[in-house]
Specification:
This protein has 406 residues and is mostly helical. Helix content is 59%, strand content 5%. The chain has a three-stranded antiparallel β-sheet with strand order 1-3-2, covered by helices on one side. The longest helix has 18 residues.
Length: 406
Amino acid sequence: RWQPALKPRIFHNIHTGNRKLINVTKNLTQSYRDISSLVIKGNMIVRYDEFINNPLYTSRTLALTTFSTNESGILYLQNRLQLGKFNMDKLHRQLLFCPPKDKIEASLDGVKQYLNLSEAQLRKMVLSVPPIIGCNFDSNIKQKLDRLQDCMKLSNEELRKIVMLQPSIIAMSFDNNIKPKLVTMKEFLAFSDDEIKKMVVRHPAILSLNFANNIKPTLDAVQDHLNLSNEEVRKMLIHKPQIISYDFDGNIKPTLDALQDLLKLSKEELQSLVLNFPSIIGLNFNYNTKPKFEWLQLTFNLDRDEMLELVQKQGTLLGVNLEKTLIPNVAFWKKCLSDRTDTEAMIEIIRLPREWTISHERLLRRAALFDQHNIPRLCLWGRSSYTDEKVDIWINKWVEQNCEGS
């Protein structure tokens, strides 16, 4: 009934509010056994908090509350979100207590309507940030999201995307966490408001990282390793903000070292490659980058310099799925160029590498559209990456010209 915490758990924010809290520090005479006895007898919930400001002096605080877990609230939450035993156990481990049904319902309904969520999306959000069920929507969640939207000049859809990708934002303090981080990021590399906005929309996890302990050390290490200017780092982050989240020693440096070793790159060539295609830093070298380079070399009989030139020309090749896109697309174009020798066909295919980077399913749909209008598939060469609107315009012009000619 009371969900006592049998093991110490981290509880970072102790809010007094209308909860009856007892702070017990190590300076008091009570032993932890005495405190445990008090908690059990009083049907209370205990959480353990440890802040280490100085390695020599550790501060410990126990927070005891008489708030009990509401049975009707648990049943409502379980039924509404269709939660099984595994997910309910997960919630129990993360929640200090479960509020009553009416409070949960008001919070969930408010979030669902405000962000235009489906029940499945709402369920995913609650499992990611369980404390949301105990937050007042109007006085807490809505105010926080409104301020974030106003500060970054976000559209409703952009705000929705950010919260869906990083639901923990709901639990963050805007004044003490989000806003200072945005200001520091902006000042660090002279980002404009629009650039910061684009980065956060593309990678909302930025808001959950600590600038001094996570973001700055990673960027400093990347900058030193590749000998980049502040402007080059700025442009790289605008293109690939996810780099901020990577661990330099455990992720970035091993990837760059393996890439440099595979292609025998100089420091200048490695720098140029990363600046041209920053996403290469986030690709798995053994399962992604290396197999693609080996396939390119074997398929087109490229030497090291030719392969490097190709990647510099069309870096997105490395971000495309090899089995599902590159291999079938090259086979498709080779068949379209069947009137040429294999050597001639491959020379023509490698001339426009962007034509093999689009989705294979999309390529087949375009080919079927050309077939419907009796347009040779080879006419799609150089146009497969067109937008749907541009393709329709081109097809209409082709049909008109051929009708007039006939």
